[in-house]
Amino acid sequence: MRVKAKAKDGVVSVKAMFKHPMLTYDMAKKQGKEANFITHIQGKVDGKVVYDASTSQFLSKNPFIKFKFKGEAGKELELSWVDLKGNTKSKKVKIK
Amino acid sequence: MKRRDFLGLGLGAAALTLAPVNVFAKDYRKELPDVWKIKNNEKDANDEKPVMEAVKKIFGTDKVEEGQIKLKAPDIAENGAVVPVSFKLEKAKKIALFQTANPECLVAIWDIPEVGIPDYAVRIKLKKTGKVIVVADVDGKIYKVGKNVKVTAGGCGG
């Protein structure tokens, strides 16, 4: 997972990329595998939700997202995802 | 205890242990499981009926107004596997992203937190030429914008 968070004038801009094959049902069928994709992405600062997305198989492979929220530099952003199989990953970065 | 009851108990316990730990504020995959299965019209990528059916389930109404949302998507996507889509509006409670090109129409639903600023971008897959549609709830009013994206190489194949 690659995350960058920058604050300017009280607005934090985040860019993030997650490593995930995002295998759709169609692709999985063709490859004889099981479908699996990220189903939820969440961002938190101080335990408070700042980004919340319920997602489907149609995000690109290794999904890339950008989002903004009201916040300041110096705090820690925790970004996490969970996939269809229940795998989960999270990363903490300092807001610059 | 009867054998049947005992087995039932076992199943219940198994289901409990399998249930994933859920710490998310809003999990629309759990809350609206059926909406993710709504299929697009395979023969006509101009047909927005499946999208409107999903909009009704997500936003509680299919009465929408055009406008408010600034949507950016390419006119032509050479690679349907990676199509950048971004959208922006002043404020919103909930935003949903759809397309008419893939087997199912829904791509994602965002719940906008108090501190959230709905200026988002995401990369999506498009199997063929179709419409990308963003719908947002702004103070209880539902707005919609759409854009045609021509796909020259599909993104949902093997």
Brief overview, please?
Chain A has one helix and seven strands.
Question: How does this model look, in words?
Answer:
The complex is a heterodimer of chains A (96) and B (158). With 96 residues, chain A is mostly beta strands. Chain A contains 1 helix and 7 strands. Chain A has one helix at 25-31, and strands spanning 2-8, 11-17, 38-45, 48-55, 64-70, 76-83, 88-94. In chain A, β6 and β7 (88-94) form a beta hairpin. The longest helix of chain A has 7 residues, at 25-31. Chain A is elongated. Chain B has 158 residues and is of the alpha+beta class. Chain B has a single domain, classed as Sandwich (Immunoglobulin-like), CATH 2.60.40.2470. Chain B contains 3 helices and 9 strands, in the order αααβββββββββ. Chain B has helices spanning 3-18, 28-31, 49-59; strands spanning 65-66, 70-72, 76-77, 83-88, 94-99, 106-111, 116-124, 130-138, 141-151. The longest helix of chain B has 16 residues, at 3-18. Chain B is globular. Chain A binds chain B through residues 11, 22, 24-27, 30-31, 39-40, 42, 45, 48-61, 63-71, 82, 86, and chain B through 20, 24-29, 36, 81-83, 86, 99, 102-104, 106-113, 115-117, 119-126, 155-158.
Q: Sketch the major β-sheet of chain A.
A: 4 strands, antiparallel
Overall 3D geometry of chain A?
Answer: elongated
Low-confidence runs of chain B (pLDDT<50, min 5 residues)? 15-22
Q: On the 0-100 scale, what is the average pLDDT of chain B?
A: 88
What is the strand content of chain A? over 45%
Helical residue percent of chain A? under 10%
What is the straight-line distance between the termini of chain A? 18 Å
Q: Tell me, rounded to a whole number, the average pLDDT of chain A.
A: 97
Strand order of the largest sheet of chain A: 4-3-6-7
Count of DSSP helices of chain B? 3
Structural class of chain A: mainly beta
The radius of gyration of chain B is: 19 Å
Query: What is the count of β-strands of chain A?
Result: 7
Query: Helix proportion of residues of chain B, in percent?
Result: 10-25%
Uncertain parts of chain A: none
